Amino acid sequence: MKKFLSALAVLFAAFYTSAQEAGPVKFGINAGATYAGIRGNDVARSNNSTIDYLIGISLEVSLNDDFSIIGSVNYERLALTRNVPFIAVDDPFDPVLSEGGYGTRLTLQHITVPINLKYYIGQSKGYYVNGGLFARYFLDESVRINGAKVDGSSYGSFQDFTYGVNLGLGMRFPIDEKNAINVEVRDNLGLSNITRQPTVNGGSVKTNSVNLIVNWEFDF
Predict the structure, then answer these.
(1) What is the mean pLDDT of each run of 10 residues along the chain (220 residues)?
(2) Does 88 map to a domain?
(3) Where in the sequence is the domain holding 94, given as residue range(s)?
(4) What is the total count of domains within the chain?
(5) For position 137, which CATH number holds?
(6) Is 102 exposed, middle or buried (0-12, 13-18, 19+ CB in 10 A)?
(7) Model-level pTM?
(8) Is 73 helix (H, G, I), strand (E, B) or coil?
(9) Per the domain annotation, does 7 fall within a domain?
(10) Residue 85, SS3?
């Protein structure tokens, strides 16, 4: 983990140094919601998407009046829920069995690094689209059953690195000459298998998540 963060800091510093030579640079702070799902087989699809959050930083480098390159480093949580049924048992001493099942929530924690090409639409630059690639580094996972956290971890079940493509649409709200607020909806399509465990029919399990991102962008 320390080696990964050190490499990430070096990469970000190198990106910033080269960016200063390319054009104006803007920093940003990200916060938002994630709505995650997984796909690949019937078992994966039986999980329900749910909402969690992300926070992070961004660096945008202007290429010309219309195009820029924007890179981010986000701490991102992808959460899934699932209802696991029991055979109905009329047991007044065990309310879980009496209710016929229990609910689980799996939360996957990542460092996500998207690198996107951004295009501002129209003369006002009030709207934009962006798209590109992202890489994720797996940090940890947690499981809750009926709201109670389960001790222990199945670390090793998930791949350390995964990747995919993303596409976003956003609006820019200028505050003054140096500050602006960006609001974006972004779809992230995972292209790599996230699990190390055997899967149904030997297939892969991949993520598909949607972000609602609010970004405060500013000049130094």
Answers:
(1) 58 58 83 92 78 96 92 94 62 46 84 96 91 95 81 69 97 94 97 83 85 93
(2) yes
(3) 31-218
(4) 1
(5) 2.40.160.20
(6) middle
(7) 0.81
(8) strand
(9) no
(10) strand
